[in-house]
Design brief:
315 residues; 14% strand; 8 strands; 12 helices; 8-stranded parallel sheet; single chain; globular; TIM Barrel
């Protein structure tokens, strides 16, 4: 009975090159970013959020957005997307050749001001213009709600506000909606309740989830979402990531750990988790730090005799 309620296939969207890299103070060379993205494609990942078109003074790691996109190999059936927070970001993405964008606003006033320099009302108003602009460039639009399950600054977020944003997105014809657990405050009960409201609203439009593992409930929330009909999940290699503007932020659910869970349930992803683990290990060595994901460290233990060594010092 349990297995009958699970999907046969799940779409795993890799956001490490954006959400993971942006959190690192050490600048990752563009060429290494390209190599990692190429290897992730080689691991079977077909949807990758590669960068964000944001103010480089606020997020220096993303200052090479245009150069990165220019260097990426064009692969059939591989979607490279970018995050945009304002109209200028939409224009930059279009000029760079990015045909899939994520338009994102926060349900929290405080987080929105810290993250994008706008209050909720300002961001809510601008989002409509951003959608219209992206449509004029014939971009596929994924629209997300940051802090959907709570805010580190304000605590509980009014679910009615989240639903209001989703309704506005849908009215303006976005191609997908995403509920983002920016501060890792989602719980199975919160998740089930909000999905029960949003999925019927979205109907045939995909409802996606962007989960963080701040309080150790990341994969528990994946399990809950699977049982409630979600088949699109953002993940980050090695569990990298976290919002630079959230205190004590932790990473996203790890790509390798998520794929391992899905495989154990008989759910197809098309992703080779060991190849992803090698990407994570390579970045751990470059950054001289240990990521929060579990699978890549277990992989290291099994393959330490093959010249693959763990990081021994924290940055």
């Amino acid at each position: 009975m349990f297995k009958k309620n699970l999907p046969k296939k799940v779409n795993v969207i890799e956001v490490g090159p954006r959400d993971g890299f942006q959190f690192e103070p050490t600048i990752i060379p563009t060429e290494l970013k390209v190599q990692i993205i190429e290897d992730l494609v080689g691991a079977g990942i077909s949807q990758i959020q590669v960068t964000s078109f944001v103010n480089p003074k606020k997020v220096p790691q993303m200052a090479d957005a245009e150069k990165l996109v220019r260097l990426l190999p064009k692969k059939e059936h591989v979607i490279y997307s970018g995050l945009v927070l304002n109209a200028k970001g939409v224009e930059r993405a279009a000029a760079a050749g990015i045909s899939h964008v994520e338009i994102s606003i926060s349900a929290s006033d405080t987080h929105g001001l810290k993250n994008a320099g706008m209050s909720f009302s300002q961001a809510f108003s601008q989002a409509k213009d951003m959608i219209r602009l992206a449509k004029s460039f014939h971009q596929t639009i994924r629209a997300s709600v940051q802090c959907s399950f709570g805010c580190a600054f304000e605590g509980e977020v009014d679910t009615r506000r989240v639903i209001q944003i989703v309704e506005e997105y849908l009215e303006h014809g976005v191609d997908a909606v995403c509920l983002s657990d920016t501060t890792g405050m989602a719980t199975p009960l919160k998740l089930e309740y909000l999905l029960g409201k949003v999925i019927p609203l979205a109907k045939q439009i995909p409802t996606m989830l962007h989960l963080h593992d701040t309080r150790g409930l990341g994969l528990v929330n994946v399990m809950t979402a699977l049982l409630n009909g979600v088949t699109y999940f953002d993940t980050s290699l090695g569990g990298m990531g976290g919002c630079p503007f959230v205190p004590n932020a932790s990473g996203n659910i790890a790509t390798e750990d998520t794929v391992y869970l899905l495989e154990s349930l008989g759910i197809e992803t098309g992703i080779d988790k060991t190849k992803v683990a090698k990407c994570s290990i390579r970045l751990e060595h470059f950054l001289n730090k240990r990521f929060s994901g579990k699978f890549q460290h277990e992989y290291l233990l099994r393959h330490s005799g093959e010249g693959i060594s763990p990081v021994r010092h924290q940055a």
